[in-house]
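Worked example 4.2. Below are the chains of a multi-component assembly; read each line carefully before continuing.
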Amino acid sequence: MPESNGDKIELNIRVNGQNRVLTVEPYRTLLEILRYELGLTGTKEGCGSGNCGSCTVLLDGKAVNSCLVLVAEVEGKEITTIEGLSLRGELHPLQQAFIDEGAVQCGFCTPGVILTAKSFLESNPRPTETQIRRAIAGNLCRCTGYDKIVRAIMRVANQ
Amino acid sequence: MMGCIRKFEYQAPRTLEEALEILGAHRNKAGILAGGTDLVVQLKQGVKRPACVVDVKKIPELNVLDWNPEEGLRIGAAVPISRILTFPVVRERYSILAQACSGMGSTQLRNRATLGGNVCNAAPSADSAPALLCLGAGATLASGKGSRVISLEEFFLSPGETVRLDTELLVEIRIPTPEAFSAGSYLKHATRERMDIAVAGVASFLTFSTPDRELKSIRIALGAVAPRPVRATRAEDVLTKTSFGRQAVEAAAEQAADEAEPISDVRGSLEYRREIVRVLTRRSLSKACESLGINI
Amino acid sequence: MSEYAVIGKSVPRIDALKKVTGEAIYSGDITLPHMLHGKALRSPYPHAVIKRLDVTRARALDGVKAVITAADVPGFKVKSELSCPEAPHLARDKAVYAGQPIAVVAATSLRIAEEAIGLIDVEYEELPPLLDTAEAMKPDAPLIYPDLFTNRFGRGPTGKDNTPGNIAWHVIFERGNLETGFKGADLVLENTYRTQIVHQGYLEPMAAVADVDGDGKITVWTQNQGLFTARGTIADFLEVPLHRIKVMPVEIGGAFGGKTYQLLSPLCVLLSMKTGCPVRMEMTRDEVLAASRPAPGASITVKMGATRQGQITAISLSMFFDEGAFPERPYSMNAALTGIGLYRIPNLKLEVMDVLTNKVPAGSYRAPAAPPAAFAIESQLDLISRSLGIDPLQLRILNVAAEGDLLPNGAPLPRVGFKETLLKMADTLNERGKSGNRGIACGFWRGAAGTFAASLYVNGDGTVTLATGVADVSGSRTGMVQLVAEEMGLPIETVAIATGDSDTAPYADMSTGSRTAYSLGTAVVEACRDAKAQLIGRAAKILEKDEGEIEYSRGVFRVRGNPDKSITLAKVARSSLFSPGEGPVIGRGSVGMPPFAPMIAVHAAEVDVDKETGKIKFLSYVAAQDVGKAINPAIVEGQIQGAVAQGIGWALMEDYIFDKGVMQNTSLLDYRMPTAADVPPVETVLVEVGSPSGPYGIRAVGEPPMVPVLAAVANAIHSATGVRIKELPMTPEVILKALKAQEASSSKG
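Applying the procedure described above to all three chains together yields the following structure tokens:
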């Protein structure tokens, strides 16, 4: 049980299919821990306040802003970051679709929006374009104008 | 401005008793953590500096999501918005609440944010509040001394302030089962389609009697245009006191705009907000009626 | 048209894989052993004298390794803030904008650094801030700098003024006779338009890591739009020679002109020098919005005269840019050069000024100065077309410039695709039929040209590696790989591109101004041709023939007329490593400021306006552009679509809200950028009128699509509602207000 007196706590979490035990301060965010304790720098910080989606990870399968999750809250939970998406070197269909459709420019929003799209498609396998756009509204992109991102997601939905 | 979160003690009580003990001990030095989508931002801004953060997500009573005809809908304070949206009864019987929740934040925020948090954070623009006011929702507050149920109408005091005492924990929101032949609509006006705070929000909920389609009851509630979410009672009066139809609806909309107490801020001027209240009240009433097959 | 093997094909971006897997490394991802964290104390006041600055308590905090102020910057006593504008000017005697860094702390953790910031004692004496360009321009206005003398350019006295003021640049271009021009017009219209400060909105906040080793060698990882430009800024700021600085290539999370500034790395270097440890600094989103380099606000007054038939006889354009607290690259120059590039107007006067105020200093943003200028001019042309009853596209076609016509600065236009693009848009719109909700607008971008070099290494197995020093902000790596594959006749898989650091890479200019593909491409093609020439020479030797008898195609050198006598490129390359008297085959290309190749973008927006709330919905958006030759159509489309989204944000929702000179909306909630739900799908129409100077006729593509968006949206709103809005952003509130005013005035009859 991760309780503490402001000192470090012991945390048992499962990240990208691997069990990890960490000793960290409870007042740090999941984003910080992923990037600086676990070296998983694929998850990005764009704003720190849940407004850009660059820090999106899957927490027990659901897309969340990791900048708003305190590390103490994830004891015993399963976290998937972008690094965990390609199994044994094989790209997830969304990753491949993003490459094929030209949906990647600077790439900073890419990990977050792919994860959001993944969890969205799992519960909405036949979305309309409007539904896709609303689902990823929490992932800001400044480079692509969203066109090719939406096409990539639609392409996977139609597979 | 955002910065690192200051040190705090983290507690994750597994029972309501434990949680209440902690609140009783720390009082206003405790920060209650449910979804964290408001609290963590406030911690980073230094706006809140609790010595102890109490994570309430493990408490069984706060995770209840249940409905039966007699007791109505019970939504535990720690239930994420996304879970509420997938509960079939919510779409079937409490569509106005589903409308309000589906426009909140983003996919990511809805997977963490809670109704309890939205209500306790008490922003005047809280998206859930107008709908909850229309539905006659009540909040159950527990403390070491027992528990009490407060109607949402009395719950909000001012921006960020509610009647909840430091020693109290919001356990659940309870919403009575609406009468037959009722419908509601929540309309929110903001600049962006999603991911935006309401410049003004209007919820209306009507109950008609069958088969004569007489208006039985009406509730109209406004968000973001007063220090707290409020019922537009004078607008409601217009509708209960005159024969229901387009003219009455427009008169009610005028009244609602008049009743609002908006301010001017970075998101809009008070004149604009008033105008939006007028427009959204009319549209909300029309939409609610439409969903019952009543055209005005 | 598949005359080329890989040019013109939408091959997947070569950097895409690493980005979709999260492997790509950005500046904020770099960690080094013993790395310290830096944090800046920033002025809360827009204009204040720093009476006392005491860092003793901060220095004493456990974990703090250094604290620097302006006094630590070499040469600070004599260097003016006005030099080296890309550098982070730590406030000396006074702060000139809210958010200006005053002191910087390096500590063992960010938490400690933040605590230390709180322990720095500063005594400020507030001065009245200049927050209005009109105020700042007055001859008796208080001076932000005692030593700022206006630079004048163009018609009239050129050079620096004698008396100091708050106007950094004053540019005037004139030709013909305005009075005559307006006299000859049947319609003369004058209006003033205003655009707001907006941020480039790159998703990746600025970050830098610097490490100075025992030898004094400085290594820097930071976002930039030019490794060598960054190196130069650091060198200037810290007065160290260029060869002691090595800037490492990193992925960049969006730039759009905003990362040509080194606002963190010089501070990190200084802190690293003092502490002997690597130092990292990252801006929070608040700092990015309030204290980096957004695009300046502008006020544009345009007066145009037209004949009844639609010929524009004269134009007078006067523009004031609110540049904030540092005089940066002259926006005025850009405005004057790009403002009226598209049209053939015999009588004109362009007068543009860069005015300083006590706000965050301005920087470049995608086609700097052109979008506000086009907002005014294209809105004005729209009004003229309505007054005269002429179709807006036809009005443009009637007045469009062509090859040989002179730009306002007197330079003649080379071959351009202006008319072709206008006609293509006209065709496209005809196919769709008329629309009552449509607005069209055009954008011109002159283009910049830069100095670039490239090296092509031919490896011993016949693969090739292209070495450049270019910061890839727009997909240029992929385009260059395609160019090499095409030029060398090799499969694209055998071509690698390596972005070196500033020690090892061939020199590259900034990746800005849409110069990259165009100028670098020229250098790359030159390097390929040089490599091929060398290879042919080697092949000739091996095959014992004259060079003139050797043909090369698809990796094989053959003797003309004797197909059995041949040798593969791989073998030639291999043997070049062992041939006495010869060295490895390295192709070199070097280009210096090739001639510019102007571009046109023509956009058509269709909107639906909720007349009771002012809220806008897009029904469609078509963006046509002359791209010269699209090396990679998917990349070009992506550039266009992204620019349109940025333009929509600029037009409808982004703004800097100041209260007494302090920005209030420093979060991404209230600095509203469009989400996926706010923008329409953007259809792109690529026109290819080859440029005479770009390889394969390419033109740059990144900036033109930014230029017409503001006016296209304003013109669409006018079509849909009859209301003309001349000030940005056109929020729902602004639109509703205009609708109500129109209702009121029409009911008065």
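Take a moment to check your reading of the output against the notes. The first helix of chain B runs from residue 16 to 26. Chain B has a mean pLDDT of 96.
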